[in-house]
Amino acid sequence: MSRKTPFLTADTIILHEGKIVLVERGNEPFKGKWALPGGFVEIGEKVEQAAVREAKEETGLDVELLALLGVYSDPERDPRGHTCSVVYIARSTGGELRADDDAADVKLIDPDDNPDLAFDHSLVFSDAIQAAKRTGLL
Predict the structure, then answer these.
(1) Mind listing the pLDDT tens digit for each residue in 107-126?
(2) Cβ–Cβ contacts within 10 Å for residue 113, how many?
């Protein structure tokens, strides 16, 4: 039986030194645009593990997941096809901030900024900042 389902990704809002970590995409889609660190969940991997792994691979930072922000599943959120993303709020616990893997660059932005981000990450960013302020994480 053939069954088609959406792809699964894990994204992370990383709190680092009072700011939020963004990565510049090194690959299409949205090459050159800023986004939240994240990527596809691998077969046999828990979503939480994927979030921590992708954060490390793209930003050089070790992270601790603090809260599940939500699941973003708009079929139009990724031009490659229907992708569902599980998004976590995390804080850095070590490592060295640097672009790696498929990230071309990395930067810190103020939580009060309103960045234009790839995919639906502007919405995710806004939701995360509201949740982090409401719960005392920011």
Answers:
(1) 999 999 989 999 999 999 99
(2) 11
Residue 75 structure tokens: 């079929």
Six-digit token string for 135: 């719960």
From residue 66, alpha-carbon distances to 14, 59, 106 in Å are 10, 18, 21
Q: Is 7-135 CATH 3.40.718.10? A: no
Nearest CA to 87 out of 135, 119, 44 is that of 119
Tokens of 112: 């009060």
Question: Can you tell me the mean pLDDT for 100-107?
Answer: 90
Give yes or no for a contact between 137 and 89, defined as CB atoms under 8 angstroms apart: yes
The domain segmentation of the chain, as residue ranges, is 7-135
The residue to which tokens 């959120």 are assigned: 77
Give 21-31 pLDDT, tens digit per residue: 999 999 999 99
pLDDT of the residue at 102: 84
